[in-house]
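Reviewers of the previous submission asked for a worked example of the structure-prediction workflow described in the proposal, so we include one complete record here. The input consisted solely of the amino acid sequence. No template or homolog information was supplied to the procedure at any stage.
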Amino acid sequence: MLKILFILSFVHFVHCVEDPNLCNRTEISIMKNVKGEAIEIRRMITECCPGFGMSESSCKPVCANGCFRGRCIKPDKCGCYPGWKGNSCEEACSPGYYGPNCINKCLCKNNASCSPTTGDCTCTKDWKGKLCDIPSSNNSYIYNCSINIECQNEENALV
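From that input alone, the workflow returned the following structure tokens.
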């Protein structure tokens, strides 16, 4: 006499647990024994939630296209390092912008260049100061004056 064991198996996702990147799922198998009685077997499985993958014994977000100059902060969402922007952090900041994702506007004055990572200004030769807004001693716009005399600027205009 041939005895057949009937097995029906399906998976039911329950919810994410304390760690929002981990999900519990219950695997339920229903089998019939040789007497035809249904037997239910439940097995709890913990795994990374959709959009996350196992890395160094914890679930980390996964960015399908990678983050070239940044890191994956949410599923398919990169947080770019200072000086970079774009979906995969592949684009350098446009002139006049700096910082992570290039969201900060440079405050440099008088044609000074701005560091795309820090926003620090590199002044041209005629300017100094944190924002390059203070004339330097060799600035052609500083007046040629000596004490107690009438002054003229470089364009010979009286001041």
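The CA atoms of residues 113 and 122 lie 5 Å apart. We consider this example representative of the routine output the project will generate in years two and three.
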